[in-house]
Amino acid sequence: MTLNQPIQVPGLLLNTWIPVDDNVILNLDTSRRQGSSVCSEEVPEIFQFFVAGYGEIFKTNLLGCPSVMLTTPEAARFVLVTHAHLFKPSYPKCKEQLIGPSALFYQHGDHHTRLRKLVQGSLSLETIRNLVSDIETIAISALESWSGGHIVNTYKEMKKFSFNIGIFIIFGCLDAKYAEELKENYSILEKGYNSFPSFIPGTLYKNAVLARKRLSQTLSEIICQRKEKRLEEKDLLGRLMNATDEKGDILTEDQISDNIIGVFFAARDTTASILTWIFKYLHDDPTLLKAVKDEQEAIYERNDKGSRPLTWAQTREMPLTYKVIQESMRMATIISFTFREAVADVEYQGYRIPKGWKVLPLFRSIHHNPEFFADPKKFNPSRFEVAPKPNTFLPFGNGVHACPGNELAKLEMFIVVHHLVTKFRWEVVKSESGIQNDPFPIPQHGLPARFWKKSSSNNDN
């Protein structure tokens, strides 16, 4: 059966570069339709336009290569879980060069399974439950650095916080010199990641390539230092350095570096984006904020007004906060879709997907489908009082390539929200609707806000 194929959307001009295949990129953010300004949140709605006209599965060349778009939970499960062996991760070569071709999320098959076990070992529940106090210390330091009433870019500050968590998870205690080198060069890499892949000196992409080389040099120095001291740490770097396969082979320095940078990439902006949305949703709904505050203050009081640290058990006693986190992840859908490539001709519901075609399960379409989530554009944490239908809520993906750091990300959110609502008050400077892609969806302008630390006698928010 032939897949329905959409035509080009009339009147839509696109102006952010999105990578699609090898060195092919597409300008896909937004700006005007028939002369009018368009909020960038409309970009994912392009796919909704196609669904309305062509059905729940359709083919398109919109992304610069033959692609199949899948918009149902059943199709997502087919690609990501039950028939995952027929589809491999597929990302542009220009992106692989910046992150590193050996990074976990580029792998497939047995090698992916082996790498995932190594990474998962540093991110499992058994491991992170012992890290609550460390993460709490980093979170408190971040929040206190914003207090004083000056305007901060919430998203940028959250990126600093999540990057510091990444450094701690990967290296444990790291020399300040190396930490600054990693932050500085990763920031340059990030700026070039979604730019046009030009090697002309001075361009964002070329600067990113050079920054990537410096990152490798810094990581090589850290690895050499550990080898000289014969340290066998239990952090992620230690696990990667000490791992051997069935033949006794160890990972090369390049493979270790690729996976460390891959963890930074996967962990930083996504977690920062969700935290920024949580701040906005709580700020915009005073009734919800009060309810979350009441839940968190009950824990705060049990901890002698915060004089004792949070415990792992207490992070499991935040049901309303968890619903807010879930609904924030559904509404924002930080990862709108994922790229796969058919490794053979695949039959699905009477359709043939040719080998080599890109296949994209569209998470946003599923998360915003009123069949699964009533009134999907409304922020409503109470909807999660009932568990979503299977395969309809996929904020961390699904199957063998699901995010291995999902429990760490949620723990960060619990801890930040606890200290935010119990110890600080804040106001958004420009509370605007709409989404800005950077490259993940965030509130407009990164949510500029002012933060103040509460006095012990002031419980107002």
From TrEMBL:
Q: How does it sit in the membrane?
A: Single-pass membrane protein
Cofactor(s) named in the record? heme
The protein's UniProt keywords, in alphabetical order, are: Heme, Iron, Membrane, Metal-binding, Monooxygenase, Oxidoreductase, Transmembrane, Transmembrane helix
Q: Does the keyword Transmembrane apply?
A: yes
The pathway noted for it is: Plant hormone degradation; abscisic acid degradation
- Specify where it is mainly localized: membrane
Q: What is its EC number?
A: 1.14.14.137
* Keyword Transferase found: no
Q: Which GO terms describe its biological process?
A: secondary metabolite biosynthetic process; sterol metabolic process
Entries under Pfam families matching the protein: p450
This enzyme catalyses: 2-cis-(+)-abscisate + reduced [NADPH--hemoprotein reductase] + O2 = (+)-8'-hydroxyabscisate + oxidized [NADPH--hemoprotein reductase] + H2O + H(+)
Listed GO MF terms:
(+)-abscisic acid 8'-hydroxylase activity; heme binding; iron ion binding
According to its record, what are the GO cellular component terms?
membrane
Q: Please name the InterPro entries in this protein's record.
A: Cyt_P450, Cyt_P450_CS, Cyt_P450_E_grp-I, Cyt_P450_sf
Binding, heme? 403
Q: Where in the cell is it found?
A: Membrane
The family annotation for this protein states:
Belongs to the cytochrome P450 family.
Specify the protein name: (+)-abscisic acid 8'-hydroxylase
